[in-house]
Every structure is written in C-alpha cells, then in structure tokens.
Amino acid sequence: MKRRLTGLTNDDRVAELIEEAIDIQQREDLDILIWQISDVSDEYKTWTEVQTEELDQNNIFSDDDPFENSKAVSSEATADMQDF
Predict the structure, then answer these.
(1) Chain centroid to CA 74: how far?
(2) Contact by Cβ (8 Å): 12, 26
(3) C-alpha–C-alpha distance, residues 1 and 26, integer Å
(4) Phi and psi at residue 12, to the nearest 5°
(5) Contact in structure between 31 and 22 (CB atoms under 8 Å)
(6) pLDDT of residue 73
(7) 0.90 exceeded by the pTM?
C-alpha cells in the first residue's frame, strides 16, 4: 500500500521528519522527496518559521487518557422517573 505524507518543515528539521516517517512505517526503504522552496515572500518565510517551530514538550496532554478514571455508562446508576 502506498501512502503519501505532505508537509512543511524547515531545513533544520528534515532529518527529524525522515526519522519519524521511518518509525511510523516500520521500515527504512522509503521513497522520500524533499523540495526546497527558496523564492517566496518574506511573509511566507516568517509564517513557515513560526509553523515549523518545535512545540514545548513540557505540557503535553495528548498522551493523557481522558477516560482513565471514567466508568462505563451501563455500570453507573441511572435516575428513574420516580426519583423526580
């Protein structure tokens, strides 16, 4: 199965992008094409730099399970009409 990853990065993070692609695909024989965009406006360059900055890794909540302390609805007590 062929997959395509399209993204935007800066020169400093190309190696990191390749390593992540290899980790995700679980193989090293990937076809990777990288284009350098050099003739762009100053506004686009600034936007690209801001968009490709590495995020602060101190307050990551994506690894937290939001349902860790939850119970299934079917095992919790529910209200009946006579409770009102």
Answers:
(1) 33
(2) no
(3) 13
(4) -70, -20
(5) no
(6) 65
(7) no
Per residue in 28-59, pLDDT (tens digit) is: 888 888 888 778 888 988 888 888 777 776 76
The separation between CA 73 and the C-alpha centre of its own chain, rounded to angstroms, equals: 30
Task: Give the whole-angstrom CA distance, residue 30 versus residue 67.
Answer: 36
- Planar angle of CA 61, 50, 48, nearest 5 degrees: 125
Contact predicate 48/8, CB 8 Å = yes
Between the two ends of the chain, the Cα-to-Cα distance in Å is 57
Q: Are 19 and 59 in contact (CB under 8 A)?
A: no
Alpha carbon separation from 67 to 35, 59, 71 (Å, rounded): 41, 19, 8
> What residue has token string 């730099």?
49
Is there a contact between 22 and 28 (Cβ–Cβ < 8 Å)? yes
Contact 14, 34 (CB under 8 A): yes
